[in-house]
Design a protein that fits this description.
Elements: H1 4-20, H2 25-32, H3 36-48, E1 52-55, E2 59-62, H4 64-86, H5 91-101, H6 107-122, H7 124-143
Antiparallel strand pairs: 1-2
Helix pairs in contact: 1-2, 1-4, 2-3, 4-5, 4-6
The chain binds manganese (II) ion.
């Protein structure tokens, strides 16, 4: 299994290739806010572990193993965003919170959160109930 840091790279490489058709070291460095030399080190590691194929002057591509994991990581990120949105987390907190938790949950927990999101999608009146609790909590907080 990839480490959290490897997951961040695979996720970004997958997104870049999906959006632009390619992923350059400089693009990855910019997306992850890290130094290009760290990116070079990591892509070499990802190459050794068969997630990507990296050729210095030709760029990099995901192997089928890298693609499969990349897709799962992007879906996991999107699911967790949707989950936090559904439970009423403020938009400004969502991206950073997902980046903070996404690597630290088992796939079992991810799948169960997926069930919960699906439950809310199928029962929008439950989302409205939850909103009432949310509003009540905020009112009580405001009084303190
Ligand atoms: Mn992410």
């Amino acid at each position: 299994m990839p480490t959290p840091s490897m997951e961040d790279y695979i996720e970004q490489i997958y997104l870049l290739i999906d959006n632009k058709g390619y992923a350059r070291v400089s693009d990855i460095a910019e997306a992850l806010e890290v130094h290009p030399s760290s990116v070079t080190k990591m892509v070499q590691k990802l190459d050794r572990e068969s997630y990507i194929v990296y050729e210095r002057y030709r760029g990099l591509i995901l192997t089928s193993k890298g693609k499969k994991i990349g897709k799962r990581l992007v879906e996991r990120h999107d699911l967790l965003e949707k989950f936090l949105q559904t439970i009423g987390v403020k938009q400004e907190n969502i991206y950073d919170d997902v980046e903070g938790i996404e690597h630290h949950l088992s796939w079992d927990s991810i799948d169960r959160i997926g069930d919960l999101v699906q439950y809310f999608e199928e029962n929008p009146e439950r989302v409205a109930d939850l909103k009432l609790i949310h509003d009540r909590t905020e009112e009580e907080e405001a009084k303190k």
